């Protein structure tokens, strides 16, 4: 049997409370499968008290590890619920689920990650009329940079990223590790020379001068992006 403890809140302003659920089924299913199944119950009951409770609010999309929507903190580590198998995740028969802490809470395990997309729009981190501006040896890095899920796991563990509430109004606030991946992709595939020059300045001001290179982001990235290698190449180019 696995005991699954979920930290819940009805809103960002509401107090935190915990509910416990017991699982006695197939342990090869994922946390996402578990949440999906218990929310199907007509009368969902919290196991420690036996009280009827409401369905767990959480976010999901593809359930294939390709969209990043189901990111949450699982046993203290930010992960995708659809990739966290119960048999591998449980510690001594226990699993704790919490929402990502560096994003505004909507309810329960669901957060608002809009700040990620606002940052990409603000700094124009997209590519039009893509042209690969690098040699074939580094094209695999360009491809990998494009696989960023924008899930927020890297921001959750980054010691330099403080979250939108603490960074609001700060023009040069650290944008987080995914900024390096998106900048690398845009810089290496963009055909607009002026935009690439702007990105070089932005990278220096917002990332190079602020990141302390803990590389916790690399270790939790669900897509396995080599963020350290991308960062090293951007740093080298910054000095040229």
UniProtKB/TrEMBL annotation:
Q: Which cofactor does it need?
A: [2Fe-2S] cluster; [4Fe-4S] cluster; [3Fe-4S] cluster
Q: Which UniProt keywords apply?
A: 2Fe-2S, 3Fe-4S, 4Fe-4S, Iron, Iron-sulfur, Metal-binding, Oxidoreductase, Tricarboxylic acid cycle
Q: Which GO terms describe its biological process?
A: respiratory electron transport chain; tricarboxylic acid cycle
Species for this entry: Anaeroglobus geminatus F0357
What's the top EC group for this one? oxidoreductase
Keyword field contains Transport: no
**Family that this chain belongs to:** Belongs to the succinate dehydrogenase/fumarate reductase iron-sulfur protein family.
Documented EC number(s)? 1.3.5.1
- Specify the protein name: succinate dehydrogenase
Q: Which GO terms describe its molecular function?
A: 2 iron, 2 sulfur cluster binding; 3 iron, 4 sulfur cluster binding; 4 iron, 4 sulfur cluster binding; electron transfer activity; metal ion binding; succinate dehydrogenase (quinone) activity
In terms of SUPFAM superfamilies, this protein maps to: 2Fe-2S ferredoxin-like (SSF54292), alpha-helical ferredoxin (SSF46548)
**Classification via InterPro entries:** 2Fe-2S_ferredoxin-like_sf, 2Fe2S_fd_BS, 4Fe4S_Fe-S-bd, 4Fe4S_Fe_S_CS, Beta-grasp_dom_sf, Helical_ferredxn, SDH/FRD_Iron-Sulfur, Succ_DH/fum_Rdtase_Fe-S
Looking at the record, the residues that make up the 4Fe-4S ferredoxin-type domain are 139-169
- Sorted alphabetically, which Pfam families does this protein's record hold? Fer2_3
């Amino acid at each position: 049997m696995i005991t699954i403890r979920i930290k819940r809140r009805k809103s960002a302003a509401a107090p935190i409370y915990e509910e416990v659920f017991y699982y006695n089924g197939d342990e090869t299913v994922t946390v996402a499968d578990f949440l999906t199944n218990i929310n199907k119950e007509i009368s969902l009951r919290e196991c420690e008290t036996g009280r009827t409770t409401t369905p767990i609010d959480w976010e999901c999309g593809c359930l294939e590890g390709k969209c990043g929507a189901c990111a949450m903190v699982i046993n203290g580590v930010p992960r995708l619920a659809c990739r966290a198998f119960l048999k591998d995740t449980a510690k001594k028969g226990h699993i704790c689920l919490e929402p990502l802490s560096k994003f505004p809470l909507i309810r329960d395990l669901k957060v608002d990650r809009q700040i990620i997309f606002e940052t990409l729009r603000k700094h124009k981190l997209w590519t039009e009329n893509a042209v690969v501006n690098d040699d074939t040896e580094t094209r695999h890095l360009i491809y990998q940079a494009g696989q960023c899920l924008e899930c927020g796991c890297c921001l959750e563990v980054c010691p330099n990223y403080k979250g939108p509430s603490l960074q609001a109004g700060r023009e040069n606030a650290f944008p987080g590790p995914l900024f390096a991946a998106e900048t690398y992709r845009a810089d290496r595939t963009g055909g607009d020379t002026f935009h690439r020059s702007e990105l070089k300045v932005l990278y220096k001001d917002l990332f190079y001068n602020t990141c302390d290179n803990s590389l916790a982001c690399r270790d939790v990235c669900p897509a396995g992006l080599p963020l350290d290698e991308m960062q090293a190449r951007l740093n080298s180019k910054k000095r040229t």
